[in-house]
Write a structure and sequence with these properties.
Blueprint (H helix, E strand, L loop, with lengths): L3 E8 L8 E9 L4 H9 L3 E2 L13 H5 L6 H4 L2 H4 E7 L5 E4 L5 H6 L10 E8 L1 E2 L3 E9 L11 H19 L3 E6 L3 E8 L5 H17 L5 E10 L2 H7 L1 H4 L8 E3 L2 E5 L6 H21 L8 E8 L21 E11 L6 H16 L19 H6 L3 H11 L38
Antiparallel strand pairs: 1-2, 2-6, 3-7, 4-5, 4-6, 8-10, 8-11, 9-10, 9-14, 12-15, 13-15, 14-15
């Protein structure tokens, strides 16, 4: 399922109302981001991939929303979808689009992978290549305060970053930032426009001045960079981006989508920053005596879809994405089997509890979230869950496609997943009673 092709002109099957589309990619379900970039760069095309080049873009990524550095400019991956080839649980091969089985097509454009049908081919919009500009900053600081809620630099840094974010996002800038008790790492990106480097420098000049003039901040990297292609950018930034696709360790990623209302006034920004710092302090306290190397990273992913409203409700992605400026993750990592793994997980969850406090909307990206999220139907799917469940029951009435806290999840009583509960049910042969 590694097939890749390109159609300069495409018409969805039996769907004249969709019109003729230009520049459509067709990929098999097994194609990952790197393979797609390798293929389409030769054709002077950009693809709306995520931050990790090894992730398959047609599966959970392309069916659960799919955010990346091109999202502020072009929207989520599900926004690009024009047609799917699928096999439904009844064994029928179907070509689905906005005219053929439109309810199933809608559900698979945001309702999560592995829930409604087996995807064979993903057909989606791609874009002419463009130069990519990046601004990389690495800096450390001496934190004289043990209590991170009293860290002057972290409060000032997060406040200034929050002040800048609405303008950056409105102008199609994206980025992946991290913050810790002793340092910051920034990657701000401008992937479109005739002068991406000039635009990025102009957008970030004030914030750059804030950093370079901040007393005691030790800046080790402060570079503006220009790349000819998307693929060249990803290759050059591989060392930094690889931390967002870590392998070989156990991870837990409690997260929240931080919406535009949290950036509207100084008071709301202060509440957001205070909650962020409290989350960092919770982690410091819980892991203060850890000697195993467990950690919690705070990731600020600036990949919201505020510039591409879903005005016709064409996708089933959590609607909160359309008002999101930050996808904020408290990412815990520990070695498999490590005795203090539970402590690292508890630290990340404690951080999220603090971060949630000022948020008027509780939402999370289901691919990068806590699998034990209690209010998962609403947090993962927003107001779409009931409609998604009805579609699930229509096409998969026997719940052949079943995954934990996906649409149609049967709960802890399901023998397949009861091992995660406090009352596991012994394994029994399929079909389950």
């Amino acid at each position: 399922m590694k097939n890749i092709s390109f159609e300069s002109s495409f018409t969805a099957q039996n769907c004249p109302s969709a019109g003729i589309r230009q520049n459509i990619a067709i990929i098999g379900a097994g194609v990952n981001a790197q393979e797609a970039m390798d293929y389409f760069e030769q054709r002077n095309i950009m693809v709306t991939v995520g931050g990790c080049s090894t992730v398959g873009i047609a599966g959970g990524y392309g069916q659960a929303a799919g955010h990346g550095l091109l999202t502020p400019a072009y929207g989520l991956m599900v926004d690009q979808a024009v047609e799917f080839d699928v096999v439904t649980p009844d064994g029928v091969f179907r070509i689905i689009n906005e005219c053929n089985d439109p309810d199933l097509f809608w559900a698979m454009r945001g309702g999560g992978g592995g829930s409604f049908a087996v995807l064979v081919n993903y057909k989606f919009q791609v874009y002419p290549k463009n130069r990519w500009a990046a601004w990389r900053v690495q800096a450390t600081f001496n934190n004289s305060e043990t209590d991170l809620t009293k860290s002057t630099f972290l409060r000032d840094f997060l406040t200034e970053l929050s002040n800048e974010q609405p303008n950056w996002s409105a102008n199609n800038a994206s980025g992946y930032d991290t913050a810790s008790a002793t340092g910051i790492n920034l990657l701000e990106v401008m992937p479109i426009g005739s002068d991406p480097l000039g635009t990025l420098k102009q957008l970030t000049s004030k914030f750059n001045s804030f950093l370079t003039s901040y007393p005691g901040l030790n800046i080790t990297t402060n570079s503006y960079l220009l790349y000819d292609t998307e693929k060249e950018f990803y290759a050059a930034q591989e060392d930094y981006l690889s931390q967002f696709g870590t392998v070989g360790i156990s991870v837990l990623t409690p997260s929240r989508l931080i919406t535009t209302d949290n950036f509207e006034t100084p008071a709301k920004i202060d509440a957001l920053v205070t909650a962020f710092l409290q989350g960092m302090e919770n982690v410091r306290q819980i892991l203060a005596n850890d000697t195993t190397g467990a950690l919690v990273d705070f990731l600020i992913l600036k990949t919201g879809a505020t510039n591409t409203p879903d005005t016709h409700n064409a996708t089933s992605a959590n609607p909160v994405w359309r008002n999101t400026l930050w996808h904020l993750v408290a990412a815990a990592g520990w070695l498999p089997g490590m005795a203090d793994g539970a402590q690292a997980a508890a630290a990340a969850r404690s951080a999220l509890e603090a971060i949630k406090t000022p948020l008027s909307v509780q939402a999370s990206y289901l691919n990068e979230a806590d699998p034990d999220e209690p209010d998962w139907q609403d947090v993962f799917f927003g107001g779409n869950y009931d409609k998604l469940l009805a579609i699930k029951q229509k096409y998969d009435p026997d719940t052949l496609l079943n995954c934990k806290k996906c649409v149609g999840y049967l709960g802890d009583a399901d023998p397949m997943y009861s091992c995660y509960s406090d009352n596991p049910v012994p394994s029994i042969p399929y079909p389950f009673a």
